[in-house]
Amino acid sequence: MPLSPASSSALDAHQAELAERDYLWTLNFGPQHPATHTTLRIVLKLDGERVVDAIPDIGYLHSGFEKIGEHLNYNQYVTVTDRMNYISPLANNVAWHHAVETLMGIELTPRCKYIRTIIAELARISDHLLSNGAVGLDVGAFTFFLYGFYQREVLYDIFEALCGARFTNSYTRTGGLMYDMTPLVIEKIRKFLREFPRTLDDMERLLNRNRIFVDRTKGVGVLTREEAISRSCTGPVARASGVTRDLRKDAPYLAYGDLDFEVPCSNVGDCYARYLVRMAEIRESLKIVAQALENLPSGPVNVGGDERIALPDKKQVYQTIEGTITHFELVMLNRGFTVPNEEVYAAIEAPNGELGFYLSGDGSDVAYRARCRPPSFIHFAIFPHLIRGHTLSDIVAVLGSLNIIAAELDR
Amino acid sequence: MTLPAYVTQVQSAHPGVEASEFRGQTRLKVAPDRLFELLSALRNDHGFDMLADVTCVDYLTYRGATDRFGLVYVLVGTQTNERCIVRTYLNEPDLTVQSAVPLWKGADWLEREVWDMFGIRFRGHPDLRRILLPEEFTAHPLRKDYPLQGRGERHNFPVLTRSNS
Predict the structure, then answer these.
(1) Number of folded domains in chain A?
(2) How many angstroms separate the CA atoms of A210 and A227, rounded?
(3) Are residues A36 and A93 in the same domain?
(4) For a surface tag, which of A14, A113, A137, A252 has the fewest beta carbons within 10 Å of its beta carbon?
(5) Where are the domains of chain B?
(6) Which of A343, A372, A382 to mutate to test the interface with B (most CBs of B within 10 A)?
(7) Lowest mean pLDDT: which of A46-55, A387-396, B77-86, B144-153?
(8) Residues near A400 by Cβ (< 8 Å), separated by ≥ 6?
(9) How many whole angstroms separate alpha carbon A86 and alpha carbon A82?
(10) Which residues of B fall within a CB distance of 8 Å from A250?
């Protein structure tokens, strides 16, 4: 791959001119490196230990998810979304079917909305535990990482009780869910809500005022508010820079309109602020889960047989004519959904930022185009901007605080 | 649902812009040579300060489609909390539009991905290289005439046997 130093010439001519100087080192970082956590490569121009320029080279994990999306139907493709951001797969499932239901114009049942809200927030907790844990791990706080990973194990147990899969959940279906939430899951989530805040307190006590951690992250990788907006940043990265934007508040979807929570923001914009925003978001997510769980409406989780979207249960198929017809219509290869010949863009606030899908329907039950707006891709684009002028050892802090997931980066 | 107020202002300032609405989303359609003009007006005068996404759709096998490519810009106003989808349609052989990088720096990688996957060129883009695929790759795989499966790059790799390795 030609790594011309002219890569950022029009945007930043001065930096490119600096990069031309021949006393600079060129250092290859990745694609296999313990601190990248995933497969990505950065070519660094170093002046001693100082990073003059960084040229990201991505695509090592490109597996054509968007092309596959044009050949799998709307329910099959949810398994592929699991593999995009694999540290919070449930949020991806919710995002995908949110887009599909927006395209078809389906109104979900209240119980389904609440359950999806709960699982999306649990996914946010599990994502933030890992991404903050990885920041800690990379700058030397190994205990913190293990505290976070232990609680992720508890969350995996909840997901296993919820849908049978621990890692690649594929829990949502068009117009509903794979299974209803059982009392066992509710009991497990209640237990988690009781016990997790103590660990969270411990984690904050471990790192919030830890001298090494604060010195390594404070003032590193500062992103201003204007840059954050101009470079399309969303989620915790943008909110740590003072962009008060959260789709849960700005465009309430699912049950977020009914629930009481706050959106943590900071206006500093460095790695430490991103860490603090994520920690505060975990607490807000706990509040959301607790409220949603206590107000969980009863009733069906799937939309009814009249819409012909979700498969009816076995009793309905055997005992009612509507159920039989719906089942027949949905499973026959030449039937299936009726989808308008239209295009929509629908996004949710995923743990990592705005996760949107641009869907183009052509009448069949396979998407004509299934574009994913990946927050990792957009956040990795700002990496050279954040790292210029910092030292080599700051790379891991900045990379960790952006929470780059290479499977989502490359899709 | 009716269209928001800024749409009529945009339409009077830019004749030829068609507006439509679906599921509460405002879409504007514009000719490719007027695209940059419209985007900069939306950014500077109507508060769409963030570019959420740039993508493209290949309408080669779409029933009733008249144009080959649909280029999509999804804009967001962080203050106004509005969303606007700007679409333009392109046909072979002229697959070139003006780049939006001077307006939003975030357009850099998004437009590179569109070039990589669909082969649409962006005039004035500072660094229009392939991003996800290797530079030697010759096709644009998200076009509809590119097969899902087939003999790909891997089949050209030399096979080393144990005896001559």
Answers:
(1) 2
(2) 29
(3) no
(4) A14
(5) 5-132
(6) A343
(7) B144-153
(8) A37, A131, A134, A135, A137, A138, A139, A271
(9) 6
(10) 81
How confident is the model at residue A9, as a pLDDT?
46
CATH number of the B5-132 domain? 3.30.460.80
Partners of B58 on chain A (C-beta within 8 Å) are: 369
What tens digit of pLDDT does each residue of B9-66 get? 888 888 888 888 888 888 999 998 889 989 998 888 888 989 999 999 999 888 888 8
Residues A375, A403: Cα–Cα separation, whole Å? 10
Chain A partners within 8 Å of B49 (Cβ): 229-230
Q: Quick one: average pLDDT of B99-127?
A: 90
Do both A40 and A124 map to the same domain? Answer: no
A209 and A271 in a single domain? The answer is: yes
The Cα–Cα gap between A84 and A160 comes to 19
Residues A44 and A165 in one domain: no
Q: What is the pLDDT of residues A133-154, one digit of tens each?
A: 988 888 888 899 999 899 999 9
> Is residue A332 a part of any domain in this protein?
no
Whether A357 maps to a domain, the answer reads yes
The answer to whether A59 contacts B133, with C-beta atoms less than 8 Å apart, is yes
A49 and A73 in one domain?
Answer: no
Chain B residues contacting A via beta carbons under 8 Å: 22-23, 25, 27, 49-53, 55, 57-58, 62-64, 72, 74, 78, 81, 83, 85, 101, 104-110, 113, 117, 126-127, 129-135, 141-142, 146, 148
The residue length of chain B stands at 165
Per-10-residue mean pLDDT, chain A, length 411: 48 62 78 79 88 89 89 89 89 92 89 92 92 88 90 92 89 88 92 92 90 89 90 91 90 89 91 92 93 90 77 85 84 79 91 91 88 91 90 88 88 82
DSSP assignment of A273-291: HHHHHHHHHHHHHHHHHHH
Contact (CB<8Å) A8/B126? yes
Its domain, for residue A100, covers 66-302+338-410
- Do A49 and A74 fall within a single domain? no
The whole-model pTM stands at: 0.88
Average pLDDT taken over every residue of chain B: 87
Distance from CA of B136 to the nearest CA of A (A): 8
Chain B residues lying within 8 Å of A233, measured CB to CB = 106
Q: How far apart are CA A404 and CA A29, in angstroms?
A: 15
